[in-house]
Amino acid sequence: EWAQRIAAVMSIPLLLGCIWFYFEKDDVKQTAQMIEVKTNPGMTTSLILPDSTLVCLNSETVLRYPSHFSEATRKVELEGEAFFDVTSNKKKPFVVAMSNQSQIEVHGTNFNVEAYTEDNRISTTLIEGNISFSYKDENGITRKIELKPHQKLIYELEGNRTRLYTASGET
What we know:
The chain is mainly β. 13% of the residues lie in helices and 44% in strands. It is built from one helix and 13 strands. Strands 1, 2, 3, 4, 5, 6, 7, 8, 9, 10, 11, 12 and 13 form a 13-stranded mixed beta sheet that branches.
């Protein structure tokens, strides 16, 4: 009889703890894990990011992205070449970060990026929509170049030179 009374008294704090945990678990922020996708030489692959953006990776490319994007931005890291078909979301910009502190801010669009670490340049070709290419010049000042559809930007790492061309997007 004593054991039943003790069990009844102990079950109340246990029940309250379970109820508290059930309602508080929604407030716990999940930590995003970084996912890394690599393509082997001569191979290509496609994947869909957590925001439904389609990414096609070329040979010898590495893409890093979080298991879920933050509330402020959708940021990925790229080494190599990839084609992006970005899902539009005006409240959460999509950013492709590359080596040497350069990045592309995307505003719902289709574009290609070539940024192999062994090359001495980064190039991006905009198919549709608009993107902004940002880089730091030799004085550490951030420069930004807006691209329009059917434009190709080449950024030379040595000398921080940029060139803008008209492109069909087929090459």
